[in-house]
Structure formats: structure tokens, C-alpha cells
Design a protein that fits this description.
Length: 936
């Protein structure tokens, strides 16, 4: 009987509604409230009716809100015109659209396209900037590792091959920990066991008569130590010979298939032997088995015989090695490496080696290496020449053989004849032609080089040698003509080297003493493939900088000379030339460069100032004054020229003349700086009232000059008139609220008067006017620290580092004054990570090493600081203070000379000493010594 249910007793499908296909709908009555269910939704009804109408090929019925399209449009139009103010659809009928409307639409479209085109560049630039900013703030993973990917390009094949295989990282830490625990587990071994292990395998021929103990054994501590040392040696050897250790080869055996790198294996064996290590017998046996298999499977593989012979040589079986290589010569008669190895193994017996070389040459007469090996076997020059001539008979085009024959010849005339024959035979050898010219006289050399140029028209080395020959003959003026001809000839045959190659060749000529040739090469080739539209000036400046960094100053000088000739009105090029002459040239050359520069650029203030300064430093005071006089004619009313003239006169102690210059400047080039300079000079000379009067005059015209306010207050402070000084600083903070230094001065004088609260309030006011200012924040910390409020100082410092995380001043203050000695080094490391290349932090690190008596480290960090920023005077101060205790006199003298050349101007300790009116007559080295004594 079938197990299928009766149709009428089966449950109804989900969402079934009786009579739905005939248009009936489900309904419920009050009696159906219990088991009745909700009928289909309106959307489901519409969907089912539409499907049925489609299957019957009829239109969709209008039940459940499905109205005809015409009725909907009619209702929409009626709703649209209910509101008289609604003009929607007024022009949608299209009945009145004519040519004028079409023209208007086209005009509007053209205008829209033009406006879009106008704004497109700015819009695209803005969008690109936004994209760049987004990518910068949200970099992709692949961009974050771009530098590492570029660095992978420098990885060699050996380093790639040495990379370990990817292993199973699951549970790696657990397995490593278990392995460490297993290795760390130890047991107490009785002495008897160690003694038995040590004496196992040995024959005792004597009987000890001493009773070492009740058990008949005696503890031998020397043997125990030897056994432990042996065990340690085994562990070290096993660790060194681990499969993953560098320098080892791995042999993998799978069934009967074996793979190995015989060359690498033998290389490792040779390396061990060269280092004096004993090669394990297991390694030799394994390599022997593999190489014998390789030779048997391919009897014509010459390198296989060589590798097997070298293995036997490493193993000390030289006789076996000779037999193997002899078999290799028989099986591979055309393999050059086999014959070379056979000759090498038989070198101790010269006769046998010669016989082997003759046999190899007979089978391979064109093998240059075999001929050279045969030549090396000969002991006398005559025999060598004989063999060399035989080799040349078979290989007349070999440059190496010609060089050997010429080097074995001592008579210069014979050498010339051999060179003539060689160049006639091998006409395309640059080396032979140039060597022929070198051994010949000047006239003959010129003829030889002319012939060489005809034989090898694409050789630039021959042209360079011809130019060097002219310089050696003293005809320096012909070098430029020779190189010009060389460039034209090489371009004609399309053999012109790159500009970088020419610069390299010029540096080689300079290194070998041919400076004129180097200059001629640069002059003729430095502009090769650089159009006038290119940034040639910057390119040449970079080339000169690179050559100078490599120590090739003549080449750099030639590059800059050409740049000056092409850009005579560029102050940048003139400054670069002057800088090169100043550091790597003579004073006369520097002054000539500067004279030419001011004639070419008479309106350049920097060149006039540099020229006058170099004249003054060359002890030519009158010449410096003349230069400044000429500069006043070209740049009348320039304040920098006046201040430089004042500096010169003050250095010469001509104070009346300095006052004269300042008085003229106050009328012809009046600026707040001129008044400040005048007040400073009067203050240094002790005329404080005149200085105050000049400050007041300047403040009437420039009330916002914070330097004049500062000088005025300092003058009052130096005469103990503290209320007037406070008033001057207070006026300054109101007139120049953006000057942090005035707030610091005002706070300092309030602190001196005992008004700590006012001082703190002044600094707070300054921080409000100058948010995130490191100097004000540091002064606030120091104020609290001077009054032992360390907790407050720590809080202010924490907030300060939040505002200024890259301030070396704040980090230095925190490390040296707010941290314990044990925490200074970690904080310094943290600071260097956040603040890259800050000289103050370098000095702090050097002082930390100094306190730990690590003097070499301290000296290196002090040197880093002064090299990084020579203008930072405190770096020189602390470095000299360090050398006073741990340096030599030569080193201190070197630091003093370099500091004087750098002329530092910044640094708290340095400025405090340098700007003291009592020290204005002191030289930089004297100021450095005073500052080093005051540094704490």
C-alpha cells in the first residue's frame, strides 16, 4: 500500500488562499477569530494578479489599487494646477519651442562648459590635494612598506638563498619554551659515572695502591673538567653546524633521489680549511659520495672532476686527487678547467706540469688560459718569451699574451717594436695604443694617437690621453681645443659617453695630477644633453657639490667656473664658488672670485658683505673699508652694510668712526635695528644715559620693537633701578605681546624682587599670548624648580611636552633636571625618537655618557652635536668643557679653530656670555673658555 497521504488530508501550502486564482480574496468572520490567519498583503496580491494576467495574455486587473495610467496622469495634472503659484510643468508641453529657444539652450550649455573648464584645474588640484592628504593620513599597507620593498633590490642572491624556510608557527612559543625547559633540566651525576665514562675504552696497565675511598674510586677533578669541556665543545659544534646556520649546505635525501649543491658544499669546506678548522669526516664522505655519483652519471662533466679532485685535496689525499683529474683529462679533453686544475695539482713537479700543459695545449691550441699557465711554469725570461711567442703564433689577437711578452722585454727599443707589431695586429685595443704612446717620445706619441683615433674612432679614452699628453708637454692652452674636437668627433660617430661618465673621467685625471685636462673635460662636456630650458644651474651646483664631497676640488672648481660663465648674474653660483675657494682654495683665489662677483652683481648685498668680511679676515682693514665704500655707492641706505661697517670699526677699536657710521645711518637708513645697534654700542662703551636716550628715540618711532624695550630694561637693571626696569619690560609686553623674551625678562625681575606670584602670573599671561611656546613653558618649569615646587614643575612639563612634543629645549630640561640619574638614559632615548636631529638632545646624551665615564661615547656625541648645528654655541661650550678634562691640547686647539670659523650665535650659555657688555672686546675663543667655566 502506498505511503503517500491523501490529497485532501495534506496541509495547505504557506500563504495559500482558496479561490485566489479566480479573483477571490481571503476574509475572516467573528467565528474565525481563533484559528483564522491574515491574508496576503496588497503587494503580494498585485504581484500574483499581474503574473496570472501575463500567463493569460490579458491586461492586469484594476483590483487592489491598480489603476490605469491615463487616470493617474489625469489626477496628477489636476493636482498640479490646484495651486496658482505652482508653475511646475508650464513649459513641459513643448508646443512653443522654436529656434531661438534652441539657440538659447546651446548658448547656456556653452557657458556652462566654459565655466566648468575654468574651474576644472582648481577643482582637480583641490581634489588631488584632498586625496594626497587622505592617503598621507591613512596610508595603505603597501605604501607603508615601500621603502623596505626598495631596499630588497639590494639583496644579493646569496642572501636570498640563505633565507630560512617558512615553518609552522602554530604553538612556536610553547614548543620553544618546552625545549628550553628540556635543555635546562639537569641531574646530579655521581663522580663514578663521569670517571667511568672518561676511562671507557682505555686499557689500564697499572694498579693503584692508594685507597681512594671505601668504594675503590677516587675523584679526579681535572678529568671532570676535561669531560665537561668536551661536552660543551660538542654542544657548540652542533649549534654551529645546525641546518639553519649560515654557511652550511643542506642535503636532502628522499628515497633514492639525492640533491646537493657540490660547488657550495666544497666552498664551505674550503672556507673552513682556510680558517684553520678541521673539516668533519662525515661531511667529506657525504660530499665524496654525491660527487662520485655526479661524475658517474655524466662522464663528460669537467667541473664534476674538478670538484671531486678538490674534495680529495681537502681530505689530504693528493695522490687520489691527481688520479681523478687525470681521468678527467682523458674523459673531457676539451674542458679548459680540467687541464688548469691538473696543472695546478702538479705544480710541485714542474716537469709533469709542463707535460700536462703541453698535452692540454695540443688539444686546445686556442685556450689562452692554458698558454698563460704554461708561461707561468717557465722560470727564465727567455723560456717565457719562447712559450709566449708560440702562443701568439696560435692566438695573434690575444691582448693578454702581447702584454706578457712586452712586460718580459726590458730593452725599450724592443718594447716599441713589439708595441708596433701588437697595435698592427690588434688594431682595436685601446690599452695597447695608449701604452704604446706612453713609452714613446712626444712627437711619436702624437703620431701614435692620431693613428689610434683612425683605428678606433669611437674611443674617448684615446682623446683623453691626447689631452693629457698636451698638458704634460706644457701646452695647457691646447687642452680645450683637443676636447672640443673630441666631442665633435664622438658625436659624429654616435659614441659620446654620458655626462656623468665624463665627470668621473675628469676626477680620475685630477687624481693622477692632470688638473688642466680635468678642467678641459668639464668645460667641453658638462652641458652635454642639457637644454637651456632644463634646470642646468641646479644640476651643475649638485655636480660640484658631489665632486667636492669626493675630494675632487679641481673638478668642482671647473664645474662652478662653467656655471659662472653661463649664469654670470646668479648670486647662488657666485656664493658656491666663493664657498669652495674659502674651504678648499687660497685666499687670493677667494678674493678674485669675490671681486668678479661684485662686478657682475653690484646690487647683491650678500656678496658685498662677504667680500668685505673676507678682506677684513685677511688682515686688509683698508681694503675692507674700500669695499664697503664701494657698496654704499651701489646700495645707498642699506642698513646691513652700515652695521657691518660698525662691526669692523668696533673690532678695530675705532669707536668714534663707528659712532659716525651709526649717526649717518640714523638719518639716511633709520630703522629700529640701527637704533638698537647704536644703543648697544653706547652701552658697551659705558655711556648708559646716551644708550637710554637712543632707546627712547627709537621707541617713539617703533614702539613695537621688543629689542629696544629689552635693551632699555636691561640698562635699568644693570644700574639696580629695578622698578624702572620692571616698568620698561611691562610696557614692552603691552606694546609687543607676541615677544616671549620680554615676558621672561619681566618674570625674572619680578622674581628678583620676591614677587613669585606676579612672576608666575606674567609667564601665564605670556603663554596665553604665545601658545605652545617652548621658551615660556621651559621658564615656567624652571621658576617652579628654583622654588622647590617639583610636583608643579612636573605637571607643567607634562603639559608642555603635550603642546610641544618636538622641543629639544623642553626634553633637555626634563632629562637633566626633572629625572633621576637612572631614568635619564631611557628618557633621552625616548626624546631622540620623537625629536630627530636636535643638537640640544645630542649634548644631553653626551653629558649622560660623560657622567657614566664612557668617554669615547661622550666625545662622539659632542662631535655629532657641533657637526649637526655649528651655530649652536652651547654645543661648542660643553664639548670644550669636556676636552678640558679629558682631551689633548691638539684637540682643544682644533675645536677652538673650528668654532671660530663657525661663528656660533645661539645657545643659552653662549649668548649670556657673548652679549654681556663686559665681554664685547673678547675674541670667540676667549668667550668659549669663559662660557665653559660657567656651564653647569
Amino acid at each position: 500500500m502506498s505511503g503517500r497521504r491523501d490529497f485532501l488530508s495534506m496541509p495547505a501550502p504557506e500563504n495559500y488562499v482558496a479561490g485566489l486564482g479566480r479573483g477571490a480574496t481571503g476574509f475572516t468572520t467573528r467565528s474565525d477569530l481563533g484559528p483564522a490567519r491574515e491574508g496576503p498583503s496588497e503587494e503580494q496580491m498585485k504581484e500574483m494578479l499581474a503574473k496570472r494576467a501575463a500567463s493569460l495574455g490579458q491586461a492586469a486587473p484594476s483590483a487592489y489599487g491598480v489603476v490605469e495610467k491615463k487616470e493617474e496622469e489625469h489626477d496628477e495634472e489636476e493636482d498640479r494646477f490646484q495651486d496658482p503659484d505652482n508653475e511646475v510643468g508650464l513649459f513641459s508641453s513643448g508646443m512653443n519651442y522654436d529656434k531661438e529657444d534652441d539657440e538659447a539652450d546651446r548658448i547656456y550649455q556653452d557657458v556652462d562648459e566654459k565655466m566648468d573648464k575654468r574651474r576644472r584645474a582648481r577643482r582637480e588640484a583641490r581634489e588631488q590635494k584632498e586625496r594626497d592628504e587622505y592617503e598621507k593620513n591613512n596610508p595603505k599597507i603597501q605604501l607603508q612598506f615601500a621603502d623596505l620593498k626598495r631596499a630588497l633590490g639590494n639583496v644579493s642572491e646569496e642572501e636570498w638563498a640563505a633565507l630560512p624556510e617558512v615553518g609552522d608557527m602554530t604553538g612556536k612559543a610553547k614548543r620553544a619554551r618546552e625545549a628550553r625547559m628540556a635543555n635546562a633540566r639537569s641531574y646530579a651525576v655521581p663522580d663514578s659515572v663521569i670517571q667511568a665514562a672518561h676511562s671507557s675504552g682505555q686499557l689500564e696497565t697499572s694498579i693503584s695502591t692508594s685507597d681512594g675511598g671505601s668504594d675503590g674510586t677516587m675523584t679526579n677533578f681535572a678529568s671532570i673538567g676535561a669531560a665537561q669541556k668536551s661536552a660543551l665543545q660538542v654542544r657548540l659544534d652542533s649549534a654551529a653546524n645546525a641546518p639553519n646556520s649560515a654557511g652550511t649546505q643542506t642535503a636532502t635525501t628522499s628515497g633514492t633521489a639525492t640533491s646537493v649543491d657540490p660547488r657550495g658544499y666544497l666552498t664551505s669546506l674550503d672556507r673552513r680549511q682556510a680558517m684553520g678548522e678541521e673539516v668533519p669526516v662525515e661531511d667529506i664522505n657525504r660530499a665524496r659520495m654525491l660527487l662520485e655519483s655526479a661524475v658517474k652519471t655524466n662522464v663528460g662533466n669537467g667541473p664534476g672532476y674538478v670538484a671531486l679532485a678538490r674534495l680529495e685535496e681537502v681530505a689530504g689525499k693528493i695522490h687520489t686527487a691527481k688520479k681523478i683529474i687525470q681521468k678527467g683529462c682523458e674523459m673531457c679533453p676539451k674542458s679548459i678547467v680540467v687541464w688548469e686544475e691538473a696543472i695546478r695539482l702538479n705544480r710541485e713537479n714542474t716537469h709533469n706540469a709542463r707535460v700536462i700543459a703541453a698535452s692540454g695545449i695540443k688539444l686546445n691550441p686556442k685556450a689562452i688560459k692554458l698558454w698563460m699557465a704554461a708561461i707561468d711554469l717557465e722560470q727564465t725570461p727567455a723560456a717565457r718569451k719562447k712559450v709566449t711567442r708560440q702562443a701568439l703564433d696560435h692566438n695573434p689577437q690575444s691582448v693578454e699574451l702581447w702584454k706578457i711578452l712586452i712586460n718580459d722585454t726590458e730593452d725599450i727599443e724592443s718594447v716599441k717594436l713589439l708595441f708596433a707589431k701588437a697595435t698592427d695586429t690588434v688594431k682595436l685595443s685601446e690599452e695597447l695604443w695608449i701604452s704604446y704612446a706612453r713609452v714613446s717620445g712626444p712627437e711619436e706619441a702624437q703620431q701614435i694617437l692620431n693613428a689610434a683615433r683612425k683605428a678606433i674612432p669611437t674611443s674617448w679614452a684615446i682623446w683623453v690621453h691626447a689631452c693629457r699628453l698636451q698638458e704634460e708637454l706644457g701646452k695647457v692652452n691646447l687642452c680645450d681645443k683637443v676636447m672640443e674636437r673630441a666631442v665633435k668627433a664622438l658625436i659624429k660617430v654616435n659614441a659620446m659617453p654620458s655626462r656623468e661618465d665624463w665627470i668621473t673621467q675628469a676626477e680620475i685625471c685630477e687624481e693622477e695630477g692632470d688638473v688642466a685636462t680635468a678642467g678641459a673635460i668639464i668645460k667641453a662636456t658638462i652641458g652635454w644633453k642639457l637644454d637651456e630650458d632644463d634646470d642646468r644651474r641646479d644640476t651643475w651646483l649638485e655636480d660640484a657639490k658631489n665632486s667636492s664631497a669626493r675630494g675632487r676640488y679641481a673638478t668642482a672648481r671647473a664645474i662652478l667656473a662653467h656655471a659662472v660663465s653661463m649664469f654670470p648674474y646668479s648670486t647662488t653660483v657666485w656664493h658656491a664658488s666663493a664657498d669652495l675657494e674659502k674651504h678648499h682654495g687660497s685666499v687670493e683665489a677667494l678674493l678674485q672670485i669675490l671681486e668678479r662677483s661684485v662686478n657682475a652683481c653690484p646690487k647683491s648685498e650678500s656678496l658685498w658683505l662677504l667680500y668685505a668680511r673676507e678682506k677684513w679676515q685677511a688682515n686688509d682693514a683698508q681694503g675692507a673699508r674700500e669695499v664697503l665704500g664701494r657698496s654704499f655707492e651701489q646700495l645707498p641706505g642699506n642698513e646691513n652694510l652700515y652695521t657691518r661697517a660698525v662691526d669692523f670699526e668696533v673690532d678695530a677699536e675705532n669707536y668714534d668712526q663707528a659712532r659716525n657710521f651709526l649717526e649717518i645711518a640714523r638719518f639716511s637708513a633709520a630703522t629700529d635695528r640701527i637704533f638698537m645697534k647704536s644703543a648697544v654700542l653706547e652701552r658697551q662703551l659705558g655711556d648708559l644715559e646716551t644708550a637710554l636716550d637712543l632707546c627712547n628715540q627709537g621707541l617713539q618711532t617703533w614702539p613695537g620693537s621688543w629689542k629696544l624695550h629689552a635693551i632699555k630694561g636691561q640698562i635699568y637693571e644693570s644700574t639696580s633701578r629695578l622698578p624702572q626696569a620692571q616698568e620698561a619690560y611691562s610696557l614692552g609686553t603691552r606694546a609687543a605681546p607676541k615677544s616671549p623674551f620680554l615676558y621672561i625678562l619681566l618674570s625674572s625681575i619680578q622674581e628678583k624682587q620676591g614677587a613669585i606670584v606676579k612672576a608666575r602670573s606674567t609667564l601665564d599671561r605670556g603663554r596665553q599670548q604665545n601658545p605652545k611656546n617652548a621658551e615660556l613653558l621651559c621658564e615656567a618649569v624652571r621658576l617652579e624648580r628654583r622654588h622647590n615646587n617639583l610636583n608643579t614643575a612636573q605637571k607643567i612639563m607634562a603639559a608642555a611636552l603635550q603642546d610641544c612634543p618636538s622641543s629639544g629645549l623642553l626634553w633637555a630640561e626634563k632629562i637633566m633636571n626633572l629625572e633621576s640619574r637612572t631614568q635619564r638614559k631611557p628618557r633621552a632615548l625616548e626624546a631622540i625618537k620623537k625629536v630627530e636631529k636636535d643638537p640640544q638632545l645630542f649634548v644631553v646624551v653626551a653629558r649622560i655618557f660623560w657622567s657614566e665615564r664612557r668617554l669615547d661615547k661622550a666625545a662622539s656625541w659632542f662631535l655629532k652635536a657641533v657637526v649637526l648645528d655649528p651655530d649652536y654655541g652651547d654645543g661648542w661650550v660643553w664639548y670644550y668643557k669636556f676636552l678640558e678634562q679629558h682631551g689633548t691640547e691638539e684637540k682643544k686647539a682644533e675645536v677652538l679653530s673650528k668654532m671660530a670659523m663657525a661663528e656660533p650665535r645661539h645657545g643659552e650659555v653662549w649668548q649670556a656670555v657673548r652679549k654681556d657688555p663686559k665681554n664685547f672686546k673678547l675674541k670667540p675663543d676667549e668667550i668659549l673658555k669663559i662660557a665653559a667655566a660657567k656651564a653647569e
